[in-house]
């Protein structure tokens, strides 16, 4: 197993490097970089994309000098444009910029945001509590509900209970998360009916004045609706996966043998079937969590006024804040690759009979 882990760790390097090269190359062809963003703001406070789409005389190209390369730079001296390029590092060739960036990343230096005057790592740490809250609680609730429900559906396969619960979770899966979030706001956050939960934020304004118990209750009071909205679609896949996994195991010969020996149904189900049936479900927990964590829905965060990594990524992409874009891409890409290795280790932990080295051989 040690050799397998070592090989997987060594594969992380070229994989992560490939991810960064592809994304860095693509960004070079995307119009509306940081310099264009500043020019658009100085030339009238408009959006840089108005100039890209076309418009009036204010977005004509200047002939000659540094202005020639930028849309909307009319009236700005070339020296100013060149100073902006030096400040952002665009006076250097793309290859040199990429090598410098990757060299800094190896020392965990992710630079500073172009527009926020804060380091990328501090910015990520600032937004991470929101995303961790959504990802952790959504994953735990999905597992705590879906696993018992899936087992019950497997035991009651074909019954009225199985039919109705399948219909319910499929309908829930079909409802878009943002639509369900709006529905929750309308019903329970003072939209048109009950004012039970707060409308926005992760904590109340008087958070610092609350006791420890008060802070815990306030936190769960605020996080309830966002977590429910982000979890609703996760039940279907996990519940049906659990059910089908149990059904496959229940039909095997060792289950029939256990029943023939006179073991109780609960002993057969939880003493023999559970470990084998839950292999794929439990072992996939790290990947499921990291998936929910990374995909922190920008729509959910916007609806509930939560400032998490989803909004951070979107705002960085719109503003062409390259240090934030590439820094978060590197951090999350590395984390996802490591989590892939942890998922394999979880398989071995749940079932020691699995040997990845012999399978590779």
TrEMBL record:
Topology versus the membrane: Multi-pass membrane protein
Family membership: Belongs to the binding-protein-dependent transport system permease family.
PROSITE patterns cross-referenced by the UniProt entry: ABC_TM1
Membrane spanning residue stretches: 9-30, 130-149, 170-194, 219-242, 277-304, 324-350
PANTHER family (UniProt xref): INNER MEMBRANE ABC TRANSPORTER (PTHR30465), INNER MEMBRANE ABC TRANSPORTER PERMEASE PROTEIN YEJB (PTHR30465:SF66)
Protein name: Microcin C ABC transporter permease YejB
Highest rank taxon of the organism: Bacteria
Protein's cellular compartments: Cell membrane
InterPro entries in alphabetical order: MetI-like, MetI-like_sf
Pfam families on file: BPD_transp_1
UniProt keyword annotations, A-Z: Cell membrane, Membrane, Transmembrane, Transmembrane helix, Transport
Residue ranges that the Swiss-Prot or TrEMBL entry lists as coiled coil: none
Main localization, broad class: membrane
Domain ABC transmembrane type-1: 128-343
């Amino acid at each position: 197993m040690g050799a397998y882990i070592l090989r997987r760790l060594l594969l992380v390097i070229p994989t992560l490097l490939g991810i960064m090269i592809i994304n860095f190359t693509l960004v070079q062809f995307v119009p509306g970089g940081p310099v264009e963003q500043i020019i658009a703001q100085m030339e009238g406070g408009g959006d840089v994309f108005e100039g890209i789409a076309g418009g009036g005389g204010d977005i004509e190209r200047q002939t000659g000098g540094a202005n020639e390369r930028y849309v909307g730079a009319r009236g700005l001296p070339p020296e100013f444009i060149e100073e902006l390029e030096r400040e952002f590092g665009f006076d250097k060739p793309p290859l040199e910029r990429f090598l410098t960036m990757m060299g800094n990343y190896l020392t965990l230096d992710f630079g500073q945001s172009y527009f926020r005057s804060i380091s990328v790592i501090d910015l990520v740490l600032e937004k991470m509590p929101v995303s961790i809250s959504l990802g952790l609680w959504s994953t735990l609730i999905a597992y705590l509900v879906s696993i018992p429900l899936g087992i019950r559906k497997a035991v009651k396969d074909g019954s009225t209970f199985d039919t109705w619960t399948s219909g319910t979770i499929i309908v829930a899966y079909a409802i878009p998360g943002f639509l369900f979030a709006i529905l929750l706001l309308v019903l329970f956050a003072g939209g048109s009916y009950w004012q039970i939960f707060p409308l926005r934020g992760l904590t109340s304004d008087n958070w610092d004045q609350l006791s420890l118990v008060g802070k815990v209750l306030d936190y769960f009071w605020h996080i309830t609706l966002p977590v429910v909205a982000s979890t609703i679609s996760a039940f279907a896949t996990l519940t049906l996966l659990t059910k089908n996994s149990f059904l496959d195991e229940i039909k095997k010969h060792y289950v029939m043998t256990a029943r023939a020996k006179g073991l109780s149904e609960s002993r057969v189900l939880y003493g023999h079937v559970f470990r084998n049936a839950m292999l794929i479900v439990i072992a996939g927990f790290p990947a499921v969590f990291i998936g929910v964590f990374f995909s922190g829905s920008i729509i959910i965060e916007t609806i509930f006024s939560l400032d998490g990594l989803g909004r951070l990524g979107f705002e960085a992409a719109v503003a062409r804040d390259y240090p934030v874009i590439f820094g978060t891409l590197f951090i999350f890409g590395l984390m996802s690759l490591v989590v892939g290795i942890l998922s394999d280790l979880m398989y071995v932990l749940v079932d020691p009979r699995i040997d990845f080295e012999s399978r590779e051989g």
